[in-house]
Amino acid sequence: MDKQSLDTLQKLFMRHRLVFWYDDKGTLREEYEGLSLEGVTKLEIVNNEFALKYHVLREEPDRKFLLYQASPQPPDDENWLLDLLLSSGEFRTDRTAILLSELDMDISFQHVIKKHAAFFDSKARIQQLKKLSSKNDSSRDLQTKLLAVCCGNDGGRLDESLMALLAEGIVGGEDRLNLVARCNLTEHLWEEIKIRYGYVSGNPSLFDFAFEVFQFSFERSIGLFDEENKLSIQASLFLKQWKDSKTYSDSFVAYSKKLGDELNIPSRLQALDFKAVIDCDLFEAIDTYCIIALLEQVKGR
Questions:
Q1: pLDDT of residue 52
Q2: For residue 117, what are the β-bridge partners?
Q3: How many domains does the chain have?
Q4: Domain span at residue 42?
Q5: Can you tell me the distance from the alpha carbon of 196 to that of 234, in angstroms, rounded to the nearest whole number?
Q6: Are residues 263 and 218 in contact, defined by beta-carbon separation less than 8 angstroms?
Q7: Whole-model pTM?
Q8: Is 121 helix (H, G, I), strand (E, B) or coil?
Q9: Residue 194 domain-assigned?
Q10: Which of 123, 241, 276, 291 has the highest CB neighbour number within 10 Å of its CB?
Q11: Nearest to 212 by CA among 169, 247, 168, 259
């Protein structure tokens, strides 16, 4: 048996007294027969379910057992050991199954493992995911945490992953975004951004997202509301979190300077009373405009 499979099996016995092994085609019988684990007794399931159940529950209730069957797991309504199986560990020998076992996840997450298979090619990413994952995670939660690992985000939150990608993008980097793509997480990234912030585009990009959010937040601060703009209040809150972030505030400033020019903020301010924008802290041009206006007001007194 290969080391990874053996390690997985040993970890299962650290959590469970009974471990089931359904060898669908019986092709791993030799590995089963040659297997020796300290403190573990091997028993084969061969039309002996009732005797086996009595033995492991009544005769040796404290001993650890590996219960091997050289055929597929029976349907639930035909499985006389189902009650034991549901409360025990299960050793699976395909890559997806091994990963599920290593991550202590049930089979309902197998589609996530398969869809994002490239993510699991790295032991370092797997170890980081273990630190972030929780028993209460949904499939979406898990995908967001895969995204976080790809973005070097230790917190597992979407907003921090997005800040990390934006910070890389403003200096021309693409390593994190490319890793997200390799791990088949790009679709999830934009879907979560759509759900959280209301950003929708036929050709989404990080720069376009930043442009839309800065524009939306500026116009909202001066009382302009575009009914066609579907961004949510969460988009403005994201900007505040980004601006206040100890890790990513520098990238916020970089985007602010670039987008201030893109949005023609200095010219737009000329048509506004400084009092209408004094509470808006998105652009350096606003600070400059308000300071000049205040100085002129003082001089006029």
A1: 97
A2: none
A3: 2
A4: 3-93
A5: 7
A6: yes
A7: 0.72
A8: helix
A9: yes
A10: 241
A11: 259
